[in-house]
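Request from the bench team (R.T.):
"We need a structural guess for the complex before ordering more magnesium ion. Sequence and SMILES attached. Just send the C-alpha cells back."

Command: build protein-magnesium ion structure.
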Amino acid sequence: MATATTVVADRRLAAAPPAGEGVPEHLLQIRYLAAMAGLAGVYLGAARLGLLAAVAQRVVSSVWPPAGIALAALLLGGVRLWPGVWIGAFLLNVTSGVPAAGAAVIAAGNTLEAAAGAWVLARVCRFRPALDRLRDVLALAAFGALLSPAIAATIGTASLSWSGQSTTAQHPQLWLVWWSGDALGVLTLAPLILTWAAGPVRLDALRARAVETALLVLVLGAALRVLFVTPLPYVYLVFPVGAWAALRFGPRGAAATTFTVALVAVWYTVHGSGPFTTSSPLDNLFLLQVFLSLLGVTKLCMAAMFAERQGVQNALRALSRRLLHAQELERVRIARELHDQVGQALGAARLNLERLDAGAGRPPDAAAVAESAAALDRAVDLIRTLSFELRPAVLDELDLAAAVRSYATRQARRAGLELSLEVAALAPSRDRDVEVVCFRILQEALANVIVHSRADHVLVSLRAERGQLRLEVRDDGVGFESAPHEAGAQRLGLLGMTERADAVGGAVKVRSRPGAGASVVAVLPLARRGSGAT
Ligand SMILES: Nc1ncnc2c1ncn2[C@@H]1O[C@H](COP(=O)(O)OP(=O)(O)O)[C@@H](O)[C@H]1O
Ligand SMILES: [Mg+2]
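Reply to R.T.: structure attached below.
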C-alpha cells in the first residue's frame, strides 16, 4: 500500500517545469495548436481525476485514464499531436512539485508510450478506431495495452530511481503498478473514445432502442449494486450484462459498459467496499485490474466478432442483390441483341425472299441474294457469339486447352489485339466445374482487356502445375488501381472472378497499377485424375 501511494504521489510529482518556451515553432496551424492545447488540458484534467480517486483512501487508482486518452487522441488526431501529451504530463508533474528535469523525463515516457502505441497501431496494424474487427481489438490489447505502457513504466521507474525518489527494492512493484495502471487506462478509456469518435452517432437509432437501452442501464446498475454495495461477491454477474451490451449495441456498447463498470469499481474499491477490498491493497489492485481487463477485452472481442459477422452477412446480401441485378441486365442485353440484330437480319432476309418469290420466273436478283446471304451470315455470327457467351459449347466438344486457344484467338482477332498464346496441352481432366470456372475467368478477363485496357498486346497462358491449373491474362494497357482498399463496390466482374474461383477452392490475383498494364492470375485446384464427377 505504501508503494501504491508512493507511485501515485510520484506520478503527480512526475511532471516538470515548463511552458512558455516549450512551444515548438513549426506548429503553425491554429487548429493544430488548439487540438494540442485541448489534449494537454484533457490529459491534465483526467490525471487529476485519476489522482483524486486514488488519494481519497490512499490506494492507488488502478486505472490511469490519461494513458487511454493520449493513445486515443494520437490515433484519432495523428501522432503529430504528441506535444499535447508531453505538455499535459509535464504540467501535471510540475504543478505537483516534481523537479523540472524529472518531470520532463517522466512526461517524455508518457508521450513515447502513446506515440509508439499509436504509430504501431496506425502504421503496422492499419488499425480502425471503430473496433469492429477482431484484429483491431487484439492489436489494441497487445500494442496499446500490453507493450507500450512498458515504455512509460520503464522510463518513469528509472527516473524515480535516478532522482533518488524510490529504492531499488521498490522498483519491480513500482514498475508493475505503473504498467498495469496505464494498461487498464488504455483498455477502459481508449475504446470508449475511439468507438464513439469513429463515426457519426446516430441519434435516431439510439432513440429507436431507448427502451432496451434503459433496461440495459437498469440491469447493469442492479448488477453493480449487488457487486459493490451488498456483501455478495458475484463478480461474474457483470459478464452477461456486458455480453448483452456487446451483442446488441456493438463495440460502442461494449466500451461504454466496460467504462461504466471500471468507474464504479474503482470508486467503490477506493472507498473500501466491494469484492476487491478483502486482500492486501496491492492484491486488491491487481484483482480489480484483472477483472476489468478481462471484462473489457472479452466484451470488445465479442462485439467485434459479431460486427464482423454482420458485416459479412450484409456484404453477402448486397452481393446477391447486385448479382441478381447483373443477371437481369445481362438478360436485357441478350434480348436486345436477339431482337435488334438477329431479328433485323432475319427480317431483311425474309423480305428479300418475298421479293424473289414475287418475281418468280424472272432471273433471280443477284444483289438481293448476296444481301440476304450477308444478313444471314450476320445472324449466324451473332447467335454463335451469344450462345458461346451463354455456354461455351467448345468446352463440351474440345478440351479446356483447345477451348481457351480458340476463344482467345477469336476474341483477339475481333478486337484487333496482338495475342501471345502459351497454352500447354493438359492431361484430360474430369473436373468440369473447374474447367468452366477457368473458362469464365478467361472470358471476363479478356472482356476487361478489350473494353478497358486500350492495350496493343495481350498474353494468355494456361498450364497445369502441381495439381493446379494456372491461367494468366496479362495486357500492356492503361492499367488501373487494383489495391483492394481502392476497389469500388461496383467491380462486379472482378468480384465475380474471385467468387467463382473461391467456389472451387481456388483464388484470383489481380495486379495492376495505372499506366502499368494489368494481369489476372487464377490458380484453381485440379481434382486428382480419376476422381471427381464426370
Ligand atoms: N485489363 C484492365 N485494364 C484497365 N482497367 C481495367 C482492366 N480490368 C479491369 N479494369 C478496371 O476495373 C474496373 C472493374 O472491372 P470489372 O469488375 O470487370 O467491371 P466492369 O468491367 O463491369 O467495369 C473496370 O471498370 C476498369 O476500370
Ligand atoms: Mg468487366
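Two things stood out. Strands lie at 418-423, 457-465, 468-475, 507-512, 518-525. Residues 1-21, 55-60, 529-534 have pLDDT under 50 and may be disordered.
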